[in-house]
Predict the 3D structure of the following.
Amino acid sequence: MTETPRAFDLDRDGDRLVLALHGEWRLARLAALQAAFDALPPDALTRGAVCLDGRGLAGIDTAGALLLWRGVQAAGAAPEHCALEAFDPRHARILDLVRERLPQTGTRAPARRPNVLAQLGMQSEGLARLAVGHVAFLGLTLSEIARAVVRPSVLRRRELMAQFRQVCVNAIPVIVLVTFLIGTIIAYLLGLQAEQYGANIFVVDGVALGMVREFSPIIVATIVAGRSGAAFTAQLGTMRLTEETDAIRTLGLSPEQVLVVPRVLALVVSLPLLVFVGDLAGLLGAVVVSNLMLDITPATFVDRLHAALEARHYVIGLAKAPVFALFIAVIGCRMGVAVSRDTRSIGIHTTSTVVQSIVVVILLDALFAVLFQELDL
Amino acid sequence: MSAPPDDTREVVIDVDALVTRFGRQTVHDGLGFRIRRGELVALIGGSGSGKSVLLREIIGLQRPQAGTIRLLGTDVWSAGPEALQALRRRFGMMFQEGALFSSLDVAANVATPLREHADVPPALLDALVDLRLSLAGLAPDTGRKMPSELSGGMKKRAAIARALALEPEVLFLDEPTSGLDPITARAFDRLLRFLCHDLGITVLLVTHDLDTLLTIAERVIVLGGGRVIADGTLEEIITVDDAWVRAYFSGRATVPVDRQDAA
């Protein structure tokens, strides 16, 4: 590329102003070209008919042409009245082409950003719509489940089993790992305190009660929300994107019955089972720590467990699970169904599913805590 | 039968002895062709004849098992990362579904290559984006829309605008008119012809659209059985004695009036 120091020369020829272009007028040189025009006074091209001279022009592209015409405009001349002289026909064609399109450039309305109040309003309205949509979807799902109860033949057993395997069986390793670790942590922390008072044995009471009644249901529900709730949204969202849900409807089937009911039922059945697995793994973790650190043998641990852990704590822990599951599954499915038909929406909805599910699980758990307190359970 | 030997224009795409295999399946079996600057070439062939794969190999997305591909004088598969990066600024690619970035509006999509690879004065950037949209046949206000709000035809136009952003010397298009109604598709053909003739861009497109071929393609390359089974002007291709080519052009063996207008 031949770099000339000057982009152009401006000379007066009688009553004409001749703008002689030099070198390459291409994308790579835009900054230098712009600087040359910036150095020009704003009325440089106002006194006389403007003529462009292309003798020294080595090459031009549409970006260079656009810059030229805008520069000419900024210097006070009208591009449509400029004469072109001694241009290579190809260069002249590009200049003409861009000149024709000049009125369409730079006219785009700037993006409007709503102010804080408007954003707050929009967010609130969105949240309200979301909640209403969830309630409607919950109703729809329950009525579909009722239909499946009345006419068991409409239930998709194969899909139900596939989902059960996915959300329950395949989740067991991660649930065991996490709850085992939580069990060891609680036992360890309690043990540190209890040791000071020689009250080692009461670690069993603390771990058993905490694990079975609160930690296991919450931890397991959180894992399942991140694992299965997100998966539901991504699966159903992708199916909407590829029009699979529309195909199901066209074939005279109900997407709720084919896709949603199996997922909801599978999760509602799975979560109590997973919480049970979590209870066992958490207690096992506590047994290990108690044995190594607190001199409580496994046999002593189990003895104490019988005395300390009343059945009602265990039942309360398990009873919360299906309720958590129902909400996680309904949120996951509904967010998937609500995906709009673009790829970005799937990511947004999946994230939203996980956030909503976890918030709802914690809210429900707080509600249960108050409820059971009032009931003296 | 390919371009006349007296053609002195520079060769911009040179594919030689190309071999591509997927597992045991051989897609390309030593195929080769040359495309010169300013040509508008259509690549056709049956499903699975490796048209899109060939395109991906030419632009450096997928490595062939053997053979050489020279694009704008650079050997695509033996060039270093810097040479490849420099090469990428010199061609544009339009993917079949547009492949617009769904989190950016159309204007930001078109501005992305300009921001990344060119030193455009900030004041000029918006105007340049508008010019690209206008060259692709879109109104400036379309720039404010998100890709999900566009119709299929507009998506493809926006994708072309993005492919044109850096003033490419070569433009690759994968099925530019698939999924478009005939009227939009013909408008698209005119757009491609305009890009090739008025901006001097070399265009290589993969297509199934017979009307596109009949209207704008100056040269057609037919792939089949892993090789180039025919290469030449449409008139030459129609006379080729090959079952697939005959079936493809059956009943459409005459050049329509529209094409003669164009010539």
